[in-house]
Write a structure and sequence with these properties.
The structure is a homotetramer. With about 300 residues, chain A is of the alpha/beta class. The first copy, chain A, has helices spanning about 10-15, 20-25, 50-55, 80-95, 120-125, 130-135, 155-160, 165-175, 220-225, 240-250, 255-270, 280-300; strands spanning about 30-35, 40-45, 60-65, 100-105, 150, 180-190, 195-200, 225-235, 275-280.
Amino acid sequence: MGCFQVRTDLALEARESITEADSTLRGVKLEEEYDEEEDIRVTTVEITTKNGAKAMGKPMGTYITIEAPGMLEPDEGYHREISEVIAKQLVKIIPGIKEEQEILVVGLGNREVTADALGPHVVDNLYITRHIVKEFGKAAYNKEKINIISSIEPGVMGKTGMEAAEIIRGVVEQTTPRVMIVIDALAARSTKRLNRTIQITDTGIHPGSGVGNNRNALTEESMGIPVIAIGVPTVVDAGTIVVDALEKMVHDEGETERHRYVDDCRNALTELHNMYVASKDIDAVIKRVSYTVSEGINIALELA
Amino acid sequence: MGCFQVRTDLALEARESITEADSTLRGVKLEEEYDEEEDIRVTTVEITTKNGAKAMGKPMGTYITIEAPGMLEPDEGYHREISEVIAKQLVKIIPGIKEEQEILVVGLGNREVTADALGPHVVDNLYITRHIVKEFGKAAYNKEKINIISSIEPGVMGKTGMEAAEIIRGVVEQTTPRVMIVIDALAARSTKRLNRTIQITDTGIHPGSGVGNNRNALTEESMGIPVIAIGVPTVVDAGTIVVDALEKMVHDEGETERHRYVDDCRNALTELHNMYVASKDIDAVIKRVSYTVSEGINIALELA
Amino acid sequence: MGCFQVRTDLALEARESITEADSTLRGVKLEEEYDEEEDIRVTTVEITTKNGAKAMGKPMGTYITIEAPGMLEPDEGYHREISEVIAKQLVKIIPGIKEEQEILVVGLGNREVTADALGPHVVDNLYITRHIVKEFGKAAYNKEKINIISSIEPGVMGKTGMEAAEIIRGVVEQTTPRVMIVIDALAARSTKRLNRTIQITDTGIHPGSGVGNNRNALTEESMGIPVIAIGVPTVVDAGTIVVDALEKMVHDEGETERHRYVDDCRNALTELHNMYVASKDIDAVIKRVSYTVSEGINIALELA
Amino acid sequence: MGCFQVRTDLALEARESITEADSTLRGVKLEEEYDEEEDIRVTTVEITTKNGAKAMGKPMGTYITIEAPGMLEPDEGYHREISEVIAKQLVKIIPGIKEEQEILVVGLGNREVTADALGPHVVDNLYITRHIVKEFGKAAYNKEKINIISSIEPGVMGKTGMEAAEIIRGVVEQTTPRVMIVIDALAARSTKRLNRTIQITDTGIHPGSGVGNNRNALTEESMGIPVIAIGVPTVVDAGTIVVDALEKMVHDEGETERHRYVDDCRNALTELHNMYVASKDIDAVIKRVSYTVSEGINIALELA
């Protein structure tokens, strides 16, 4: 029941909203590790069949979710322990990472909207090597193996007049990386997930993700190379929050109740169209989390 | 009824939440002008008695609200027509503006949180004269009358370790302006008000206003000079939105219903503590509105 | 004489450094207009032959230089009169501007180095239409003719690992504009030119221009579409300034003098390698000049 | 000889420009340590008499100069080894640091001019405690001793209309810290010093320091509390560079030569008035160096 299809970018939340019955259905594997000392939980959801994909409302593929409540608290630094978990999971999911790789890292989002600035901030802190290797060769680094890293911040459509996907496709064709890593701010269903959850998936990014305007898909299909997406939920859709609250009040009520609920719900969604919910210390959160993620990438690429 | 005292920074909204009975009560005057061509409505609420202040939950004084839906649409500029309305109202409310004045303009808020960056952006665009007049005298300007303008962006407590009020009081004592104008982002009760409403008041700023952390009061009483506050609602408290939605569903229900409502309401408020709702194009809005407000100030001070 | 080939991005300065003898040579046409009231001088240098190009050390093509000392002074705005001169010259030089055009505007340079941030700031203020026309058609604008404008800020190689030219070529292939306008900060030979001169040319941008790192060429040849470059000199190469000063002291001196000069000159150039000279109020200048240029473009494209 | 009094903010450079004869004069003590492994040199100049002050053109007091060429190279971080040297020297020079201290850290300079943004960037990365201790008491930190740290970025006079000193004096009177630490970008005489030298002094800041506009003094005399200044030379005055080059060419020449030199020199200074020389990668340098300095402060205050 409900007056709309609740939207979440997190496979973990999609998974939870599935009833027992469904959850036993073939095609959705769930695996969990928990590091008690650091209080970090890693959940891997694998969607292996079309039915699974339909039930979850997410494309087939692997979704790794790192839950790290510590990320909410400032430590005297940036939570290197979390960066190391991110790195470990990236090494698992990035194809061919064992050999030398050419990787384009894409920072999606709007630098000028704090809650949507995760992607741009992450690329700010990456260790970029492509231009050095192109000019001086690998000799420039005293390492046996050096990954060739480039990055782009495509900006927002309102400012460029172009879809992020158009810009990125052009860059991919010109510079022919073998793999793409895309970072974006996500929308969660519950505020309980905000700024403490990191999702890593090999399914890329699909329109409507993130805070910003709709974007074309960034997937292996559309880009011609594997696309690993790293997302952190920084906002909740404002409509979702209201609808969730309303639903809690409507249980076994009768017809009238039901109708009134649906009306109220629809009104709420209209009024809250294009509104999002974020936490008041979002600036500090983004600064810290983006650094944690970029260090995770640097470690995975053996550049930190 | 309701599980909490709904908070709004807008006198206009406080006014609306008063029932007929109250509204006839002495001590709250209401006046309205409407410019049909520009679709700009100016409402002046005057609270003249302690009873009025109590009923409104706002200190005694004058509250001018400019409603300009046009502010939501980008025009090919910054809506000069709205700046002129702002200027006209400022000239009414700034004491001694007819003579030459020494005015300190304070930009409250957090430059790094888009929805809270109104104050800092407004002071960026002000026409500052104090240092020129101090160094070269008024001769530097070929004008009969020149207002002496200075500005300060006190920043946020998390970064300075100080209350904005502490910094401002120090600046006032050192530079002895005659009047203070304070700009801040406000919290509205309804998203219908966001980014299209400007409130001008001679009562200053009171703790808990704006998006940021609590601040000490900025009032004539605490600063020793008249304090004119200009506010634009850019966010709604996330709890408010949920509670409003819940209340719509609870009318003449019985005890159980009532109890469940209050519980749900309290839970919502706990979960949404320190969360705010903003619109997705907040960056463009802040850029445009802040320029409209700063031009309004420049015009009022005869510096544009 | 001199220990190095002095570098300037301004055709006007190259022209001046040519002796009488050369200047009469075929292949370099010079034309001048002067608006006395506004004190704006427009000089058009046309290089029409290979000899001319060799003598000038600049590719064949048209170079329009607008000298507007007024740009150095803040007025209560952004010098619209200069924007209108820029627009008039752009209309002359942009091919096919009379019909509807699809134009990509490129903001070169480094947003984080004030003196190199002209390009990024100019694109910030452009009126972008491509995404609107693509989504809603031209009907979205109540105009007979609407130019389709997109923009890109490629960023600096140290951050992206890619040449600006690689990124831009990719964007051009994906979005197929008909014309490109490139904005960049230039290096002048003399501080007398800084922040008061605007150069418009149909020859594009060549490696080594601007403050930033070397860039591949952005020309019709490399991009496949006409490339109009708009440049404003914001810096002088530090070596140039010293060498110029030294040269003034060395006239008809003898051998020893000459030798010593050449040594001193070489030392200066080594010490000042990768150093530039800028004015202390460069932040205010860039803010004002970038707005003047972007308004000039908006006017030329009939979007202001 | 020379057509002007060369200006440098570095005591070390002032010291060098003193001839043997002077250097033996009483009142200027020199002490040097060199860490060969890290290639970090620490020179301490103590000016103990008025004569010494006159000869050096600097007020009496202690000037510690840390020369760390490594600071020019990006490492995979921010050069913690240099931060530790800074911390060690700060602990020596900050009065009463052994006990619990209340310290105000001031970030001078202009955030919007890259070469002048050192101060603002340093305060961005400080660990601020004052507001926490005021609200929750020292219990909030599980430490025996907690320094009470606040910070302010006064901004530039062109934007505030006030001297930095006016703002800071006001803040000091309101919040009564016991010690002030001021961070500012300095002007060196030679480009060889840029971005690799850190000066720490107990004499505060004197008008004309840094890149920005003249500022009133920030000294114990003017502020009523000890003022420790930390400076990093990020620019060289453009005039200085030219004059130095000219002087190299003028040795034992005759009258005419001398006169011509003085004229050329004066012209150079006029043309280069308000111009500065900076390195092209100043953005990366400021980002890295400011972090190194702020970590040095955090370590000294036992907050890192």
